[in-house]
């Protein structure tokens, strides 16, 4: 039942989106007359139902983390990581229970996380942009998307507000492609499936039905979908359809945690929660793969 409800999440988000829109319209006295004829109790019930159902997601049984190879090479930093807490992204939506975001450490030329400017930074200004992304395990490619353009970073105040309100809500309703951007889904030989998201436009090296092995390049790091700057998002699931999948925990067997904190992520570098996967880097921690 949870999987069926989760598949329909974009539908459950519609009444929430409608409620927010009506709230904004009411401020300006612009609510359509036909909406005013709907009983308030009915409106509230529909919106509340959407809130409740949109929070329903599949859960996997307790299990040991699946051991995989890291999807990158070199020096990287982690954020929103299962090495900090679970759920790592604060949600189980799209099988993201133990997802991790990684980016390359900043250089003197890397744009600030937030800056005062009218226009945000281009993706090409970030060191992670264009870095190779590799398969974490053997399996078969079951899903791809490759033609979404790379957008500018969301590193101005106005861009951040836009991303966290209008853009975020619209992408959630639009579905997985709008959230993941360019992506690859691989079904592993053990039945698990991995998602590699926010990949660079036209960078995919694989196609549906193709077999891959650990270390095979899938594409390049980009800035597509629900992304504030170029980075790689990966997570492990118990099936290939993210809307029906339960998230699974994983660990990488070919990384060395440095204990060093990326300066731009120092504010979120805290002691891990008790349910964190200690073999994975915590928020802000730099690791080598």
Automatic annotation (TrEMBL):
TM segment ranges: 12-31
The keyword Glycoprotein is assigned to this record: no
InterPro entries linked: Cell_wall_metabolism_enzyme, Dup_hybrid_motif, M23ase_b-sheet_dom
SUPFAM superfamilies the UniProt entry points to: Duplicated hybrid motif (SSF51261)
M23ase beta-sheet core domain segment(s): 167-241
Record's protein name: M23ase beta-sheet core domain-containing protein
Taxonomic classification: Bacteria, Bacillati, Actinomycetota, Actinomycetes, Micrococcales
One Gene Ontology molecular-function label: metalloendopeptidase activity
Keyword match Membrane: yes
Protein keywords: Membrane, Transmembrane, Transmembrane helix
């Amino acid at each position: 039942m949870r999987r069926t409800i989760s598949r329909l999440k974009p539908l459950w988000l519609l009444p929430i989106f409608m409620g927010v829109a009506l709230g904004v319209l009411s401020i300006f006295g612009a609510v359509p007359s036909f909406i005013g004829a709907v009983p308030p109790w009915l409106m509230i019930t529909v919106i509340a139902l959407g809130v409740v159902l949109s929070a329903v997601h599949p859960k996997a049984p307790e299990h040991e983390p699946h051991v995989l190879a890291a999807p990158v090479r070199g020096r990287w930093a982690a954020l929103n990581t299962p090495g900090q807490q679970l759920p790592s992204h604060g949600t189980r939506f799209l099988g993201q229970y133990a997802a991790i975001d990684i980016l390359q450490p900043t250089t003197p030329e890397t744009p600030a996380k937030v800056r005062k400017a009218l226009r945000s930074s281009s993706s090409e200004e970030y060191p992670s942009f264009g870095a190779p992304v590799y398969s974490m395990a053997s399996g078969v490619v079951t899903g791809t998307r490759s033609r979404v353009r790379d957008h500018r970073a969301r590193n101005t105040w106005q861009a951040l507000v836009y991303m966290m309100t209008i853009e975020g809500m619209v992408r959630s309703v639009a579905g997985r492609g709008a959230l993941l951007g360019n992506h690859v889904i691989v079904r592993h030989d053990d039945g698990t499936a991995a998602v590699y998201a926010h990949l660079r436009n036209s960078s995919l090296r694989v196609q549906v039905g193709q077999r891959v092995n650990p270390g095979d390049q899938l594409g390049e790091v980009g800035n597509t979908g629900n992304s504030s700057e170029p980075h790689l998002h990966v997570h492990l699931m118990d099936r290939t359809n993210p809307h029906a999948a339960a998230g699974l925990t994983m660990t990488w067997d070919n990384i060395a945690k440095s204990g060093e904190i990326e300066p731009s992520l120092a504010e979120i570098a805290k002691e891990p929660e008790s349910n964190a996967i200690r073999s994975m880097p915590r928020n802000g921690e730099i690791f080598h793969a």
